[in-house]
Design goal:
Shape: globular
Number of helices: 12
Structural class: alpha+beta
Strand order of the largest sheet: 1-2-6-5
Strand content: 5-15%
Length: 351
C-alpha cells in the first residue's frame, strides 16, 4: 500500500482484483491495463496485490513456531515429552499440507517423502518451506500479472479475467487458508493442552514478536491507520466496508475473511473441530464463548497495544458473530476508546 490517504473512504474495502474484473467486464481495456501495472491507489500493482499479506502471514507463523516449542517445554516433567510430540505432529501436518498445496498450485513434481522429525526439526523444516514458498509466490504472482497484461494488450478480456481468477482463487486463496488454519490449530492446541491462561500468554508473546509492525501503525494518523487496517482485512478475502463519522472510522466485515470464513466453513464442528474459549475475559472480550482463532484479535490489537502505547488499536463491536461478521472501530482521538471497552480487555472480575 502506498501514498497518502487519497482514495475515498467508501472505496477502501474494494480489492484491486475485483476492480479489475469489473473494468474488464465493461470492456475498458486501457483502464484495465493501467490498473494491472499501476494499481488502484491501494495495492501497488496486480503483481504485488497479495504479496504483502502472504509474506506477513509467513512472518507471523515463523514467530509462532518457536513459541510452540516454548509452550511445550512449559509442561511439567510428566507431560513434557507428550506435549512436544503433539506439537511436532501439528507442525509436521501443516508442513506436509502447505508443501503439497504449493506443488499443486504451481504444478511441481512431488519430492521424496520425508519422515516426521522432532519438534525442533519440524520447526526448522517448516521455516525453510515458508521462506522458499514466499519467494516462489511472489515470482508466480508476478508471472501471472504479466500474462494478464499481455492478454489485455492482445484485446482478450476473457483470458485476462480467467487469469485474474487463477492468480487469486487458484494460487493465493488455498495457500492463505492453510496458513490461517495452522494459526487456528496452534491456538487451539495451546488452549486445549494448557488452558486459557497459557493461550493469553501465547498471544501476548506472538504479539511481542511482531511489535515493530505495531509500532509503525502507532506512528500513523487515524485515517492512515484505518486505511491500512482495511487493506489488511480485505486481503483475507472477506467483504469489508467502511464508514466515517466525526469520532471514528467503522470497519464492517459482513464476512471476516479469516475467522469468519473458518467458522462458516465448519471448522468448529466435526472430528477435527477447533475449540471455543469458554472463560470470560480478555480472550473473549467478556463473552461466554469465543472462537479460538478470533481470540488473538482482542489480544494483538487490544491488550498488547494498551500495554505498549496506552490505547487499543482496534475497538471491537459485536465481534466474531455466528454469521461470520465482525465490526471494529478506529477512533480518531488517542483516548477515544470507551472506558467500558478498556475494562473488557482487563482480567476477569472475581467479584
Amino acid at each position: 500500500m502506498v501514498g497518502a490517504v487519497t482514495v475515498p473512504v467508501q472505496e477502501w474495502g474494494r480489492r484491486l482484483s475485483d476492480t479489475l474484473r469489473a473494468v474488464l467486464e465493461s470492456g475498458d481495456l486501457a483502464t484495465a491495463r493501467r490498473l494491472a501495472l499501476e494499481g488502484d491507489g491501494q495495492a501497488r500493482s496486480l503483481a504485488k496485490e497479495y504479496a504483502l499479506m502472504y509474506r506477513g502471514l509467513g512472518i507471523t507463523i515463523r514467530v509462532l513456531l518457536p513459541l510452540l516449542r516454548e509452550t511445550a517445554a512449559r509442561a511439567d516433567a510428566s507431560r513434557g515429552a507428550a506435549a512436544a510430540s503433539e506439537a511436532a505432529t501439528l507442525v509436521h501436518r501443516f508442513r506436509s499440507d502447505i508443501a503439497g498445496l504449493m506443488r499443486r498450485v504451481w504444478g511441481d513434481p512431488a519430492p521424496p517423502s520425508e519422515p516426521p522429525g522432532t519438534l525442533d526439526e519440524e520447526i526448522a523444516r517448516t521455516a525453510r518451506v515458508l521462506e522458499a514458498g514466499e519467494a516462489r509466490f511472489e515470482r508466480e504472482q508476478a508471472r501471472l500479472a504479466d500474462e494478464i497484461v499481455q492478454a489485455i494488450e492482445a484485446g482478450d478480456a476473457a483470458r485476462a479475467r480467467t487469469l485474474v481468477d487463477v492468480k487469486e482463487q487458484g494460487q493465493y486463496v488455498p495457500l492463505h487458508d492453510r496458513l490461517i488454519r495452522f494459526m487456528a490449530e496452534s491456538f487451539g492446541w495451546v488452549l486445549q493442552r494448557f488452558g486459557p491462561g497459557e493461550l493469553l500468554r501465547f498471544h501476548m508473546a506472538t504479539a511481542e514478536g511482531q511489535r515493530p509492525g505495531f509500532e509503525k501503525w502507532e506512528q500513523m494518523s487515524a485515517a492512515e491507520f484505518a486505511r491500512a487496517s482495511v487493506f489488511l482485512l480485505k486481503q483475507h478475502m472477506g467483504q469489508v466496508t467502511v464508514r466515517e463519522d466525526g469520532e471514528k472510522f467503522t470497519i464492517e466485515q459482513a464476512l471476516c475473511g479469516s475467522g469468519g470464513r473458518l467458522r462458516l466453513a465448519g471448522a468448529y464442528a466435526g472430528p477435527d473441530a477447533l475449540p471455543f474459549v469458554e472463560e470470560r475475559g480478555p480472550l473473549t472480550l467478556g463473552q461466554a464463548q469465543f472462537p479460538v482463532y478470533c481470540s488473538h484479535c482482542p489480544i494483538w490489537n487490544g491488550v498488547a497495544p494498551v500495554k505498549w502505547f496506552g490505547r487499543p488499536h482496534w475497538v471491537f463491536d459485536e465481534p466474531a458473530r455466528p454469521d461470520g461478521g465482525c465490526t471494529l472501530h478506529v477512533y480518531k482521538r488517542r483516548d477515544g476508546a470507551p472506558a467500558a471497552y478498556l475494562a473488557r480487555l482487563g482480567p476477569p472480575s472475581r467479584a
